[in-house]
Design brief:
Elements lengths: L8 H5 L8 E6 L13 H20 L8 E12 L8 E11 L3 E10 L5 E13 L12 H7 L16
Antiparallel strand pairs: 1-3, 2-5, 3-4, 4-5
């Protein structure tokens, strides 16, 4: 049995693509670069937001219309370990670090094609609330969201394959 992945900077710097249960490709664009010829910092935030919402839409059928609850971002972070740039293809990996009663902590790893070094590790905490009142849900995260996220708990404290210490 393995231990959960550490959340400190040294542990994040050692991330590999295999630490993420779900991966999407992103083709960089000329407009993603800054004047130093690497991805502009806000692009990383867009990648983080995009893969989380893409997963929720594809596997949980999530949409802001027709749902009585919504996931709001409570906090965000991004730690940078190298530069990604245009032209190129990125591998963007997603995992769930922790699922609480009404919140989910996501982690996203960003890798440049052809490089094993993680370029950035970021994520956000999403808080599930009633869409009309913005109050946390009495019954917690909807089952329609929670169940499809179970495979993303890979290498977390809540991963059934990880031994409790």
């Amino acid at each position: 049995m393995s231990k959960p992945l550490g959340l400190d900077l040294a542990a994040k710097r050692q991330r590999t693509r295999h630490d993420y249960a779900y991966v999407e490709d992103y083709r960089t664009r000329w407009s993603d670069n800054d004047m130093f010829h690497h991805l502009n910092n806000p692009v990383y935030g867009v990648l983080i937001d995009s893969i989380i919402n893409s997963y929720l839409m594809q596997y949980a059928g999530y949409s802001t219309s027709g749902w009585k609850s919504i996931g709001l971002v409570g906090s965000t972070y991004c730690d940078y370990f190298g530069s990604a740039q245009y032209p190129g293809l990125l591998d963007v990996g997603l995992r769930v670090v922790k699922m609480g009663k009404s919140s989910i902590l996501y982690e996203v790893g960003i890798f440049q094609e052809g490089s094993e070094q993680v370029k950035a590790v970021g994520g956000f905490t999403q808080i599930w609330v009633d869409k009309a009142s913005n109050k946390t849900l009495k019954d917690g995260i909807p089952k329609e969201i929670k169940d499809p996220l179970q495979p993303l708990l890979k290498h977390s404290e809540q991963d059934p394959a990880v031994a409790k210490l």
